[in-house]
Records
---
Amino acid sequence: MSLLSEYKIKNLNLKNRIVLPPMCMYSAKNGFANDFHKVHYGSFALGQVGLIILEATGVMANGRITDDDLGIYNDEYIDELKNIVNFSHRFGSKVGIQLAHAGRKSETKDLIHFAPSAIKFNEEYTLPKEMDKDDINRVIKSFGEASKRALKAGFDLIEIHGAHGYLIHEFLSPITNKREDEYGGNLKNRTRLLKEILKEVKKYWPEDKVISLRISASDYVAQGIDINMIIDILLEVKEYIDIVHVSSGGLVPVDIKVYGGYQAEFAEKIKKALNIPTIAVGLLEDYSLANYLIEKEKCDLVAIGRGLLRNPNLVMDFAKNNKIDIDYLKQFERAY
Ligand SMILES: Cc1cc2nc3c(=O)[nH]c(=O)nc-3n(C[C@H](O)[C@H](O)[C@H](O)COP(=O)(O)O)c2cc1C
């Protein structure tokens, strides 16, 4: 087992264990993908990335982080997304999409923003509306509809965004969820929205296709989510997910001490505690470190964000620098 070895989960066959994690590009118009997205995501397929996960894509208009984010709340978005998927498939990469609702961290203009409780992220953000039961049901349905569209567009994987202080995470954490109904209070109640979303998604997303859940393993504040709490949350929903993408932070403004692999220990703990595959992420662009995590089975896949953004050909560089045999595309052979 190594970073550049194949990986299989359900019907997803990856040529290596490197993942492009979702990264907002703030380049969409009215939610539509365009040439930028085609070239941008296509470059990682040419660069031999095993799994490309498209950026946080709003399941509702007010679920986008900004007005320049991708949307999947309308059938009209499907065709452009399909083009991206088809191009990447031609070059052997698999493609996922992160389905998201930004909750109180949405900066979209002229829209009401949702949250479990009416608490602002900080002074620069709007005061969100405390969601009523209808709002909650609409969000749940929207994730289901979005999965249907993702399937039509041909995605190999969907990732539910349960991290970084966006809507689902806001419900999960006692810091942002002060509700007194069945969606707040104890851990089971705070996990209810996530569970109902996953159940809805599974009505449409085929059993043999992979569902990833991205989580923040720590809020880095007292009384917030920590590794033990997130493990208990994940136990509540384990039966609905196939892989956990382990990030951290984003719920409240705090400084996090970062270093190579700073979140990898969380990924390892979750993998061991739940016996579920994990994706580790966070400053993992050093080949030796990333390969060590795979070799020692601390995680199953490694996501590299900013490292790939700087160099979409990082995978081929890894192969060349470490004398690993891979199939270079004919267009790149003379460069390697
Ligand atoms: C420009 C940019 C946009 C991002 N957008 C998203 C996003 O849409 N969804 C998400 O879950 N994380 C997002 N992230 C976090 C990354 O997916 C990743 O977890 C983070 O950059 C740490 O990995 P790295 O050190 O390899 O870059 C973003 C990060 C960057 C740099």
---
Amino acid sequence: MPDVVLQDVAKHYGPAVAVANMSLRIGDGELVALLGPSGCGKTTTLRMIGGFVETTSGCITVGGRDVTALPPNRRNMGFVFQNYALFPHMTVAQNVAFGLEMRGVNRSDTDRKVREALVRVRLAQYADRLPRQLSGGQQQRVALARALVIEPDVLLLDEPLSNLDASLRQEMKIEIRQLQQSLGLTTIFVTHDQDEAMSTADRMVLMYNGKVEQVGPPDEVYGAPRSVFAAGFLGIPNLLPGQMLPGQQGFRLEAGPVLRLSGQAAVAGRCFLALRPEVISIHAAPPSDAENCLAGRVEIMTYHGSAVEYQLRTDIGLTLTARAVAPGLGGPALLPEGSRAWLSWPATAGVTVSEN
Ligand SMILES: Nc1ncnc2c1ncn2[C@@H]1O[C@H](COP(=O)(O)OP(=O)(O)OP(=O)(O)O)[C@@H](O)[C@H]1O
Ligand SMILES: [Mg+2]
């Protein structure tokens, strides 16, 4: 399967910039997730790749071939739209056959390919139903079969799981990943759900305001967000403003104290120390050997079954969130709201991120 390369691709709507000079290479057989908040340009990017939206500038190549000016039907890409966009008056089989008929494939080949595609998404026995006689997950699989039946070089998926309930979403996520891997399909998957992106993609592309904010394998992006936006979007609630001290061994909080740091790259000027709730330990008495410790009072305690989340108001005025293992699973005893508590974390625990 070919690679897809975007070179300085932009889309402007009048003065509004939906996508600004985006450059990205999606490797042969790779699954890349475009991730970001509503309005950041994910769908516009995907539609430009698919040929449904004209680019304002830049160039898109597939396997080295410039497709920028080609209509969708000459790009050989399978597209699954966010709302599935099935034809309501056509049966499942007719929906799947549509793309083949448009390409002038003969009747017997069409029948065979449709059958194979429906088997692949486990819908063979539903061929004669209408879309409204199917569940959301089944409709979603019809859309997937319709995209796959044309034997595309590239598969484009726009929030394909957004209308499904949690368990179906989990199931479909695994199915899409398995299909993609068994066919070796170069795939671009749009989502605003970081968990979905992390659990399916080889690489994530985090977008913000029409621009690429960060690209990398999920564990790398999750472990080392590069900006305050990335850290916040990836669900890190603790972002402490301050400045790194020379030598990168200390971090002076704007709220006063100096924290101990270790293993951090230098960031000049005002920046933030991002601390995941899981790396912060909570104690009912001052810990004796902590590298970093702040005292405070429990404001909110939320029980989550296997974990307990604490929101603390520290004495220096910062609010921090810590996540502890539940008492029944070996974690510390519950600390009720209003109680005095101490938070600690190792010098290696945080990540310093720049302001923007
Ligand atoms: N046809 C259009 N005309 C004018 N502006 C548009 C048009 N389509 C999209 N936009 C704008 O471009 C920006 C990016 O839109 P896009 O649909 O790509 O976002 P998205 O990341 O897919 O968001 P969501 O998660 O809500 O689907 C938005 O600000 C949107 O309002
Ligand atoms: Mg969208």
